[in-house]
Amino acid sequence: TSIDKNDNPVKLFVMGINEWRSEKEWPLKRTVYTPFYFQSDGRANTDMKSGRLLQEPTEETQKDYYIHKPNNPVPSLGGGTLFFKGRNNGPRDQREIEKREDVVVYTSEPLTEPLEVTGWVKVNLWASSDASDTDFTAKLVDVLPDGRAYNLTDGIVRAKYRNEDSEELSLNGEVVQYE
Length: 179
Prior knowledge:
This protein is mostly beta strands. The protein has one helix and eight strands; from the N terminus they run ββββαββββ. It has one helix spanning 95-98; strands at residues 10-14, 19-23, 37-39, 52-54, 125-127, 135-143, 149-158, 176-178. The chain is globular, with a radius of gyration of 19 Å. The model has no long low-confidence stretch (mean pLDDT 87).
């Protein structure tokens, strides 16, 4: 294969328009970091309209609760690293997962124009657990007008390894920040 010396060093695939694009740097200098905030009336695990993603923070929010059952864990469905014999990786419809009572869902208002999400996605989560350890997973999901919900990216953190440099003590129910 030959290398084009005028070709940019970064290649990325833009989902939605199904197009490859070349870029000169990473992260992109024109990136606009856009924060969203969780807001809920306390039922984001049972009512798909309760949990909202807002572009402005609000003091009017309730805590969301769910019961984690280790014998019935939330299954992974799709994603960037899940791969079994050529199946299960990539974007997959998340609607069945989002219906579970041990999953909380926060949804923005429908977009009125296309939005490209390129680069790092970060979640700051403040959570407590009465378990000695637990995993917290976050997904960014694109909901289509017909209701299909495709995962774009995800991340996971194990509570006792929330600080990468050292193992933390058991949780004991205190509110802890996870990133």
